[in-house]
Each structure stands twice: as structure tokens, then as C-alpha cells.
């Protein structure tokens, strides 16, 4: 099925998928091109979320493919990686929306929840009737949130009472359920809770003037004596090590999104190089332009190769934290280079949204920073290399 390969898949990694998976991937690609792409720039420019597209995503049956569920076995890790790539190739914002809902929120409930809790929330989340968010980062705690978490939880009879604040919470302004991490006052351990929309004491406000992933509705969340049922504490979410069980899986998804962002920028750059004429010929015929494109393709290919191997290790449950950290930091760093070269190729036209490349350029900055900065991930890798922890 090599005729279905994206031109940027220079080494044909897609052929590692089964024929059925490749057909499914092509159907997803066609859906994204026809149903989602026409709305991308308008939503990004307005910094508004296109809620009317949620039913279309539900119909496309792309949610929950990473999990075994009643009547539907999970897809391969390699396929769900390519799925994340395709989403980000068209729009990193919508890829992030789905990554938060499908990976972080649903993943927390699937990995840390009891069977009763999974039955309570997952079916409607699969249908996208219930949208999820993931509340970990705090106003004063990003990279240091594990030790510096200030949001607290106190058991009070049949309830838990939460106090504190979270920041940069994707989907936070409209999510129906938010997975929230808070430090238990009784034992000082980070525990995992589900807070439902409309709970007294819970408020969400949109973070304005954001210039990356603008379609994603990031929010400040506050909890003021927010009382939730005891049954809303996820059964197996009892320490920060449990949080890391979720993050190890989703960090790989961010790496795949980083590949997709590079792919999208590369593709629009190639198209522009062929159609833009200067000095009587297409600019793609100039040596310096071809050099930029070759460097971009090298980054895409190296990043794709790393994420393919990452998914293969996930499939056999052999993926280590340091391997996930290296993939996330490497791919998003190369992504910054790739989108920068793409914007350079467009010249002045590269800053106009209708040419798409400035959107990839801006969105790559968010992918570079969230779910573990490059610096934090390199410390994880550095500890693995040397045996010494350099964390402060």
C-alpha cells in the first residue's frame, strides 16, 4: 500500500502497520482533510473551540482506541501513534484537545480507576458526550509540581474537600469531568480525584491572549472548599508514582504530535516551493530552498523513526521512562527547527495565517514545553546515562 504513503514518510514507516490499519489510517486522513481542515484557521484566529465538530469526531470512532473496552479490543500502539500524528499534521490544537480528553483524562480513569469508576465515566467519554480535562500543573508549580503541589485534599466523612488552584488546564473551560491531583493533608501523598462540572466551590476561567494552540481552551481552575463524593477519588491514584504511570504513556503521544506538527509544516512548505515563482522559476528549483527542504525531511524522518520504535516498545510493555523522555524532548526540539525552516522558506508570506505555516510555527512552541520541558526530560535521560540525579 505504498501508494497511500505521505510523501514525508520517506522510509515508509506506515507500511509497518497491517493492511487494515493502513486503510483505517487513510480513512482518518480523509476525514481530517474534508471535515476538520476547512475550520482550522478560523478557530485558531478566533481562539475559540469549534464545539460543533465534537459529534463528527465521535462519529469518526477515533476515541479510546488505546484501551481494551467491551466489544472492541484496543488498536496497536503503533496505530494510535500514527493516529496522533495525523491529527497534529492537520491541527496540533485539535490533536491536543483529543490528547487531553482521550489520553490524559480517560487514561487516568482507565489506569487508576476501579471497575465501577471506569463504568461510571468511560462509556460517555468514549461517545464524547462527556469531555475530560486533566488538572496537574499549578500557578506556582510546573516542573516542580511533584514536590511543590499546593492543592490539598482533606477526607471529611463520605466526602473529600479540595482547596487550591490549577493552571494551563486544556479543555478546562468546558470539560464535564476534570481529573485533579491534590496532596492529602493526612499522609502528604498526591492522590487523584474526579471533579465534575458544576460542583460547588469549583470554578474555571479561560486564559486569554495565548498565542500557541489557540483553539485549545486552557483554563485557570480554582477549588474553594470544593466537596466531592468519596467515590470520586480514583481507587489506585494514591501517590505521584501513580500519576507517572499515566504520563509515561501520554508523553509518547506528545512525541507523535510533535512529528505531526513537523509533517504539516513540511508539507505546506513543499507545496509553496513548487507554486511560488521568483526570478522566472519556482523557488523549489533553487539550491538553498532544496537544502531547507532536505534538512526538514531529515528531522521528520529521524523523529518518526524514534516514535515508531517508542510505540513498538509500548506494545510489549518495555518502554522505560527515560526512553519516553528522550523521545519527547528530541522530537519537539527538532520540531522547532523544522517549523522555523518552513517559515523561513515562505519569506514574508510565512507570517500570514492563510498560508498555515505560522500556525505550526506557534503551536510547536507549546508542544516543546508542555508535558515535561526539554530541560526536565534531559535530566531524566541524564540520570539514566550517568547514574547521578541532577534534579535540584
UniProtKB/TrEMBL annotation:
Catalytic activity, EC: 1.3.8.6
Domain Acyl-CoA oxidase/dehydrogenase middle: 133-226
Cofactor: FAD
Keyword Cell membrane: no
GO biological process, one term: fatty acid beta-oxidation
Keyword terms, alphabetized: FAD, Flavoprotein, Oxidoreductase
PROSITE patterns the UniProt entry points to: ACYL_COA_DH_2
Domain Acyl-CoA dehydrogenase/oxidase N-terminal: 21-129
Record-annotated membrane-spanning stretches: none
The name this protein goes by in its record: Glutaryl-CoA dehydrogenase
Alphabetical list of PANTHER family matching this protein: ACYL-COA DEHYDROGENASE, ACYL-COENZYME A OXIDASE
Family per record: Belongs to the acyl-CoA dehydrogenase family.
Superkingdom of source: Bacteria
Organism: Modestobacter marinus
Gene3D superfamilies: Acyl-CoA dehydrogenase/oxidase, N-terminal domain, Butyryl-CoA Dehydrogenase, subunit A, domain 2, Butyryl-CoA Dehydrogenase, subunit A, domain 3
InterPro entries: ACX4-like, Acyl-CoA_DH_CS, Acyl-CoA_Oxase/DH_mid-dom, Acyl-CoA_Oxase/DH_mid-dom_sf, AcylCo_DH-like_C, AcylCo_DH/oxidase_C, AcylCoA_DH/ox_N, AcylCoA_DH/ox_N_sf
GO molecular function: flavin adenine dinucleotide binding; glutaryl-CoA dehydrogenase activity
Catalytic class of the enzyme: oxidoreductase
SUPFAM superfamilies named in the record: Acyl-CoA dehydrogenase C-terminal domain-like, Acyl-CoA dehydrogenase NM domain-like
Residue ranges of domain Acyl-CoA dehydrogenase/oxidase C-terminal in the record: 241-385
Lineage: Bacteria, Bacillati, Actinomycetota, Actinomycetes, Geodermatophilales
Flavoprotein keyword on record: yes
Amino acid at each position: 500500500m505504498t501508494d497511500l504513503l505521505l510523501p514525508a514518510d520517506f522510509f515508509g514507516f506506515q507500511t509497518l502497520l497491517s493492511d487494515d490499519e493502513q486503510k483505517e489510517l487513510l480513512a482518518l486522513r480523509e476525514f481530517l482533510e474534508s471535515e476538520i481542515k476547512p475550520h482550522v484557521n478560523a478557530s485558531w484566529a478566533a481562539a475559540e473551540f469549534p464545539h460543533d465538530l465534537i459529534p463528527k469526531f465521535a462519529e469518526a470512532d477515533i476515541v479510546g482506541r488505546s484501551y481494551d473496552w467491551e466489544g472492541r479490543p484496543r488498536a496497536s500502539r503503533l496505530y494510535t501513534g500514527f493516529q496522533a500524528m495525523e491529527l497534529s499534521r492537520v491541527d496540533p490544537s485539535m490533536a491536543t484537545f483529543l490528547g487531553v480528553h482521550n489520553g490524559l483524562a480517560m487514561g487516568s480513569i482507565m489506569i487508576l480507576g476501579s471497575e465501577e469508576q471506569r463504568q461510571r465515566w468511560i462509556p460517555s467519554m468514549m461517545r464524547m458526550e462527556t469531555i475530560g480535562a486533566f488538572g496537574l500543573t499549578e500557578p506556582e508549580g510546573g516542573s516542580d509540581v511533584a514536590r511543590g503541589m499546593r492543592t490539598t485534599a482533606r477526607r471529611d466523612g463520605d466526602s473529600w474537600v479540595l482547596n487550591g488552584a490549577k493552571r494551563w488546564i486544556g479543555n478546562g473551560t468546558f470539560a464535564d469531568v476534570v481529573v485533579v491531583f491534590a496532596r492529602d493533608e493526612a499522609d502528604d501523598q498526591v492522590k487523584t480525584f474526579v471533579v465534575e462540572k458544576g460542583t460547588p466551590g469549583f470554578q474555571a476561567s479561560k486564559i486569554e491572549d495565548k498565542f500557541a494552540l489557540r483553539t485549545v481552551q486552557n483554563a485557570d481552575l480554582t477549588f474553594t472548599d470544593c466537596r466531592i463524593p468519596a467515590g470520586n477519588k480514583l481507587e489506585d491514584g494514591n501517590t505521584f508514582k501513580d500519576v507517572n504511570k499515566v504520563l509515561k504513556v501520554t508523553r509518547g503521544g506528545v512525541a507523535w504530535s510533535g512529528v505531526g506538527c513537523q509533517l504539516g509544516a513540511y508539507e505546506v512548505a513543499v507545496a509553496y516551493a513548487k507554486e511560488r515563482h521568483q526570478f522566472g522559476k519556482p523557488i523549489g528549483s533553487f539550491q538553498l530552498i532544496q537544502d531547507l527542504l532536505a534538512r526538514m525531511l531529515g528531522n521528520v524522518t529521524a523523529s518518526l523513526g524514534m516514535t515508531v520504535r517508542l510505540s513498538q516498545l509500548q506494545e510489549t510493555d518495555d518502554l522505560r521512562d527515560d526512553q519516553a523522555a528522550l523521545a519527547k524532548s528530541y522530537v519537539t526540539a527538532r520540531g522547532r527547527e523544522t517549523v522555523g525552516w518552513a517559515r523561513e522558506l515562505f519569506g514574508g508570506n510565512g507570517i500570514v495565517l492563510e498560508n498555515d505555516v505560522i500556525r505550526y510555527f506557534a503551536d510547536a512552541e507549546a508542544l516543546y514545553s508542555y508535558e515535561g520541558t526539554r530541560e526536565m526530560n534531559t535530566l531524566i535521560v541524564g540520570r539514566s546515562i550517568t547514574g547521578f540525579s541532577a534534579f535540584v
